Amino acid sequence: MTPTPVTVLGATGFVGRHLLARLRADGAACAAPARDDPTLLRRPLGHVIYAIGLTSDFRSRPLDTVQAHVCLLRDLIAAGNFDSLTYLSSTRVYAGSDDTREQATLAVNPNAPGDLYNLSKLMGESLCLHGGHPLARVARLSNVVGLRDSPDSFIDQLLEEGARTGRIVLQTTLCSRKDYLYIDDAVAQILAIARSDATGIFNVAHGQGVANREIAECLRSALGYAVTEAPTAQAWAFADIDTQRMRERFGLVPRPFDDYFPHFLAQFRQRKGI
After folding, report:
1. Distance between alpha carbon 23 and the CA centroid of its chain, in Å?
2. Which of 147, 168, 208, 221 lies at a C-alpha separation of 20 to 30 Å from 260?
3. Residue 45 pLDDT more than 90?
4. How is the chain split among helix, strand and coil, in percent rounded to 5?
5. Which domains does the chain have, with CATH numbers?
6. Residue 27 CB coordination number (10 Å)
7. 106-133: per-residue pLDDT in tens?
8. What's the longest Cα–Cα distance across the chain?
9. Long-range CB contacts (< 8 A, 24+ apart) of 269-272?
10. pLDDT at 70 exceeding the cut of 90
């Protein structure tokens, strides 16, 4: 029996690129059509991973954010030919919540410009879960660590600042914590969901937050960057992400921060010639 192919939408982005690379390395049948491919809705797509989305620039591109997170998804669900759909959302939707289980009731505020991202992701999630396809599910993805082409994540922005100036001034307190997941573990978890018959929402995360203080110490010891707190530094208040459902369903245990982060910093040193 011929294996069902995996189609990665958004394969030019950070996570999509790594998903496609892993599939090709494994010799799996896969495809990476452009979002404007005129044949996209007319051909069999197999297991679709919807990795289209905006990250750090969503505030300056609100219309593009909704187009990517909702409108293109709506067209795919309405007219696409696929066996299953895995929509990549974000654990950012838990901001301000103490309950990070997948079934938690979440709060958003349309008056807050930063909530446009959460609102659009939640609308995409709702379309997947209630749009009429029996195998459309959601992967809420944590803060993924890995080499990027552009510094659009917190850790990458710190590294760019350190490489440019030799020092880092944190705009968030040293005691602030949030969840980080290594890219290889994120890819493994997403592909496990995409190739399964699972339904509903899954948190794709490590499950235990890492404090800025731990990151700062790694940057000092590995790269020699002096890390200080800005006088106006604000504290993050992100609860640890509940990963029980993912672990029980798939049995995948992500690597701890202390295991992968030194390797990631070595890759950064090599890329920058440090």
Report:
1. 18
2. 168
3. yes
4. 40, 20, 40
5. 6-145+182-207+239-255 (3.40.50.720)
6. 7
7. 999 999 988 999 999 999 999 999 999 9
8. 62
9. 269/222, 269/223, 271/147, 272/163
10. yes
